[in-house]
Amino acid sequence: MWIGISALNLALAVVLGAFGAHGLKKIASPEQLTWWHTATDYFFYHALGLLVLGIISKVIPQLPIKTSFLLIQIGIFLFCGSLYIMALGLPRILGAITPIGGALMILGWLVLAWNAFKHLK
Fold it and tell me: Which of 92, 3, 75 minimizes the C-alpha distance to 39?
């Protein structure tokens, strides 16, 4: 399941990256393109991280990954999603959500570190 969700994230990141590179280039401001690019970069990095978590869950089944995976996935949705929405010219107030998403991604990685230290002695 984890690997499948990761693969869907990666496919969506490719689609959104291509849209930003080709569809938005002529209609978006440089600032909007920067937001789109940042969202796509973070989407790719964290989707790859989710894929690694999925693989870890198979190789080291005693390491709990569910909480980390969910925090990172929700973080991707909030962080990248808010940047994508702003890049499309929708309300910039949604930028207030961006740091929450970033904090959730950080928390997801910290929970993984905690679980690794706790369960892999």
Answer: 75
